[in-house]
C-alpha cells in the first residue's frame, strides 16, 4: 500500500511512515480491505498526494471522511468519480463557484483537474468502511494527515488553506499564519449552507486573488 504514495511526498514523510502508529494503521487498513468492502479503492487511497505533488501544492482543502456509498469516493475530499450523482455538499460548492466566478455548473463532480493544478484535496481520514461513516476514524489517519498539514506549513510559503466547517477550522492551529493564508467559512453541507454560513464566502475568487498577489497562477476552477 505504501508503494502507492508518490516519491515527492514519501521523501518528506519518510520518518512518519516508519512510526509505530502508522505501521499499526496499515495493518488495520490491510485487514479491513481484505475482509470488508471499503472506500476508496485501495489504489486510490493516496490519490490526493499522487495527483498533487508536494512541490506543486498551493491550495489545501480539508475534508473529514471519504464518501461511504458505492462508487463515490476517489481519494480526493468532496470529489466523486465521473458519472456519480453529486452529494449535497458538492452541489453547494458548485453553486457558490457559479455565483462567485460565473463558472457554469459542471457535468462531473470529479475534482481531479483542481488537484492537478496544485490543490491538495485532503480528507483527515483517508478510508472508510462501506455505508459506515466514520468507521476508520481514530485509527491513526488523523495523526498522519495532521503531520501532512504541519509539513506544508513548515516547508512551504504562501499556501492558501480553505477551512470549511468546525472540523476543518480546528486545523488552523497546525498552520503558521505568518507564512500562509487561511480562509474559513461554514461547511457546504445543506445544514450549514442553508443557515447562511456557506453561500457568499467567495473563497474561489479570494484564493485566486491571494495566489496572484504572490506571483502564482490563478486556478482554473471550471471542470
From TrEMBL:
It catalyses: Hydrolyzes single-stranded DNA or mismatched double-stranded DNA and polynucleotides, releasing free uracil. The active site is at residue 65. It is an enzyme of class 3 (hydrolase). Coiled coil: none annotated. PROSITE patterns: U_DNA_GLYCOSYLASE. InterPro entries: UDG_fam1, Ura-DNA_Glyclase_AS, Uracil-DNA_glycosylase-like, Uracil-DNA_glycosylase-like_sf. GO terms for molecular function: uracil DNA N-glycosylase activity. Keywords: Cytoplasm, DNA damage, DNA repair, Glycosidase, Hydrolase. Its EC number is 3.2.2.27. GO terms for cellular component: cytoplasm. Residues 50-211 form the Uracil-DNA glycosylase-like domain. Belongs to the uracil-DNA glycosylase (UDG) superfamily. UNG family. PANTHER family: URACIL-DNA GLYCOSYLASE. Excises uracil residues from the DNA which can arise as a result of misincorporation of dUMP residues by DNA polymerase or due to deamination of cytosine. This is Uracil-DNA glycosylase. The gene is ung.
Amino acid at each position: 500500500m505504501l508503494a502507492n504514495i508518490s516519491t515527492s511526498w514519501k521523501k518528506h514523510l519518510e520518518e512518519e511512515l516508519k512510526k509505530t502508529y502508522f505501521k499499526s494503521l496499515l495493518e488495520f487498513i490491510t485487514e479491513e480491505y481484505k475482509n470488508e468492502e471499503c472506500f476508496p479503492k485501495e489504489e486510490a487511497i493516496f490519490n490526493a498526494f499522487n495527483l498533487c505533488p508536494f512541490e506543486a501544492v498551493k491550495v489545501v482543502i480539508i475534508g473529514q471522511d471519504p464518501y461511504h456509498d458505492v462508487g463515490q469516493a476517489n481519494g480526493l475530499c468532496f470529489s466523486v468519480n465521473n458519472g456519480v450523482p453529486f452529494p449535497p455538499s458538492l452541489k453547494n460548492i458548485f453553486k457558490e463557484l457559479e455565483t462567485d466566478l460565473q463558472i457554469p455548473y459542471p457535468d462531473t463532480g470529479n475534482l481531479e483537474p483542481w488537484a492537478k493544478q496544485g490543490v491538495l484535496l485532503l480528507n483527515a481520514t483517508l478510508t472508510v468502511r462501506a455505508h459506515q461513516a466514520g468507521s476508520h476514524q481514530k485509527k491513526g489517519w488523523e495523526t498522519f494527515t495532521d503531520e501532512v498539514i504541519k509539513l506544508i506549513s513548515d516547508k512551504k510559503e504562501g499556501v492558501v488553506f480553505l477551512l470549511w466547517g468546525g472540523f476543518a477550522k480546528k486545523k488552523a492551529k497546525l498552520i503558521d499564519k505568518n507564512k500562509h493564508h487561511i480562509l474559513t467559512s461554514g461547511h457546504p453541507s445543506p445544514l450549514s449552507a442553508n443557515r447562511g454560513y456557506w453561500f457568499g464566502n467567495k473563497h474561489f475568487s479570494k484564493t485566486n486573488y491571494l495566489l496572484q498577489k504572490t506571483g502564482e497562477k490563478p486556478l482554473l476552477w471550471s471542470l
